[in-house]
Amino acid sequence: MIGPDRVHISVPMSKLPNDRPGLDDPRNAAYAWTRFRRILLAMAATAMACALLVVAYLWGRDGPLPLVFIGLTIAGVWATIMMAALLMGLMFLSSGTGHDDQVEDRVGKDVLGEDEERE
């Protein structure tokens, strides 16, 4: 809630200063990509553990499974989890490094008229 001693000023996002260097700074980019790879490596191990647990569950429920079924189940579960981890990781990478703030929003300006003065 805005009290009498506070003033709320609405500033469009395009007018805010962007002081984060994003992925243009080599040191920042190296750190961000190293962290991204480390997270993906941890997610690959977690995805493999989940895939093996799924196979163990199916083996316990249905008995011995054909090798093709085991291989395809492991590949499918692992690939699904890794795709989700990859996309979420890229989203957090671009947001956390300030890369999203550097993108020019042409739709907001041209179509929606967000940069026009409001009274």
How large is the count of helical segments? 3
Please describe the biggest sheet, giving its number of strands, its sense, and whether it closes into a barrel: none
Q: How would the global form be characterised? A: elongated
Strand proportion: under 5%
Q: What is the arithmetic mean of pLDDT?
A: 78
Oligomer: single chain
Number of strands: 0
Order of helices and strands: HHH
| Fraction of helical residues | 55-70%
What Rg is obtained from the alpha carbons, in whole angstroms?
A: 23 Å
Poorly predicted runs are 7-17
Report the span from N to C terminus: 22 Å
Global structural class = mainly alpha
How would you explain this protein's 3D organization?
Helices cover 61% and strands 0% of the residues. By secondary structure, it is mostly helical. The protein has a domain at 43-96. The longest helix has 37 residues, at 26-62. The radius of gyration is 23 Å and the shape is elongated. Mean pLDDT is 78; it is low at 7-17.
